Amino acid sequence: MAEKQDYSQGEFFSSSLESGQFKGHIAKSSFFTRIRGYEKTMLLIMLLVLTSIIAFSLGVEKGKRLAFFPEGVSASSGYTIQVSAFRSREQAGREALILAKKGFSPLAFAKGDYVILCVGRFPNQKSAQPLLNQLQKTYAGCRIRRL
Question: Is the pTM higher than 0.85?
């Protein structure tokens, strides 16, 4: 039948709980002290990837701020030097950034399926000729065109 146990069983709750005077102990520790080492590493990697994505997105948005004009809309009357034509807007944007770093004022606009990349605005063809001679050293097929 029932045998008597040699040991006493511990209580889960203290007797002070029954009297209504239980005061729990809440540990005040920071978030990083409660997580494990490999979890810290993973959080830092995720933070790095997120920061990289945000920085890349800001760079792309900065590249989109180039002067692109829709088809049929001219910036103003006058002349410009057409440097090249690209099928993709991204390639034209990259080349426009290169021209801007060299000190030129690039202008890109859509014409059919192409993006036309031009440099400068001039009131007549004669004033565009010196820059055309300079650009022909780098861009063999460039020409003066009307805006």
Answer: no
Q: What is the pLDDT of residues 80-89, one digit of tens each?
A: 999 999 998 8
- Coil vs helix vs strand at 145: strand
In this predicted model, what pLDDT tens digit does every residue of 104-130 receive, in sequence order? Answer: 989 888 888 889 999 988 999 899 999
Adjacency order of strands within the sheet including 68-69: 68-69, 106-111, 114-122, 79-86, 143-146
The CATH number, out of the four listed (3.30.160.100, 3.30.70.1070, 2.70.70.10, 3.40.980.10), of the domain defined by the range 68-146? 3.30.70.1070
